[in-house]
Specification:
single chain, Rossmann fold, about 20% strand, binds magnesium ion
């Protein structure tokens, strides 16, 4: 059976008894005509570097039917060009325009909110290049900084933590690329940007002001702008309720949760509000979406 549509589900007495900040917020209905898919990568399109079975064919079918696919990643270590190359190598042709990362959205935020400001980055060389290309002025010490950007940083150490700490204590603005506590890697997980944010928040008493990656509305706004679509014309597909599905829920966008990554059937069934679709894998997405589109075609 193609996509199990889960909509307008009434909370059970048990779940209703637990205060839930999202209670009363139903998932958005599936688009009448889907024009684009905002698509997570790891755990959704590929796993351990290999395509999820049926993913290549499913994405090709969506594109053949005129549905644009925008790949979104919270990982700021790779730039869109690198993701495009990787996808193309897996049999999913992609250009840099088809990819949006938390690094790109962070660069956009800096350009719009703090143009010309001096930025102290807790992040890696790839993101440094990307933010610089977006017009940010990066500085080497905290005392020069007007903005601190926290990120996924495998070079994070006490000296850089102290520079950022001093900048924040002196009143610099505080933003971050992505909220993820960990990043999945072959054989397990490694600490991600969420830990860097926590280190700074705990020690300075400050709270991060904006986070670029999913589920931030900054990411959704950037994605919809890139696609030229309204929220009612797109679907977010991904394997993580807290990032992918929450991105859609906050923006009133339909969501498809796939069970090829971090979420199993039991966890999916317990989600409130339920995603618009729960699918065994992205291979089922064309049947779930194009069935709706076909009904419109005369
Ligand atoms: Mg994922």
């Amino acid at each position: 059976m193609p996509g199990l549509a889960v909509m307008n589900e009434t909370p059970t007495p048990d779940s209703a008894a637990v205060p839930d900040p999202a209670a009363g917020l139903e998932a958005a209905a599936a688009p009448e005509r889907c024009r684009a898919v905002i698509c997570d990568l790891d755990g959704t399109v590929y796993l351990s570097g290999r395509p999820v079975p049926g993913a290549v064919e499913a994405l090709a079918r969506l594109r053949a039917d005129g549905v644009r696919v925008l790949f979104v990643s919270n990982n700021p270590l790779r730039d869109p060009g690198s993701y495009a190359e990787r996808l193309t190598g897996l049999g999913i042709p992609a250009t840099t325009d088809d990819v949006l990362t938390s690094g790109v959205v962070m660069g956009r935020w800096l350009a719009e909110e703090t143009p010309g400001a001096k930025v102290y980055l807790l992040g890696e060389e790839s993101l440094r290049r990307e933010l610089t290309a977006a017009g940010a002025v990066l500085v080497d010490t905290g005392d020069q900084a007007e903005v601190v950007v926290a990120s996924f940083d495998r070079t994070f150490r006490y000296e850089t933590w102290l520079e950022a700490f001093n900048a924040l204590r002196a009143g610099a603005r505080f933003v971050a690329t992505n909220p993820d506590p960990t990043c999945p890697v072959e054989g397990g997980e490694v600490p991600d940007c969420g830990g860097v944010i926590a280190a700074l928040e705990t020690t300075t008493g400050r709270r991060v002001e904006a986070v670029a990656g999913k589920p931030s509305p900054l990411m959704l706004t950037a994605a919809l702008e890139r696609l030229g679509c309204s929220p009612a014309e797109v679907v977010v597909v991904g394997d993580r309720p807290g990032t992918d599905i929450e991105l859609g829920r906050r923006g009133g966008v339909a969501t498809a949760l796939v069970l090829t990554g971090i979420t199993d059937q039991a966890a999916a069934a317990a989600l409130r509000p339920a995603p618009t679709f729960v699918l065994d894998s992205i291979a089922e997405l064309p049947d779930a979406l194009l069935g709706q589109n076909a009904q419109d075609t005369p």
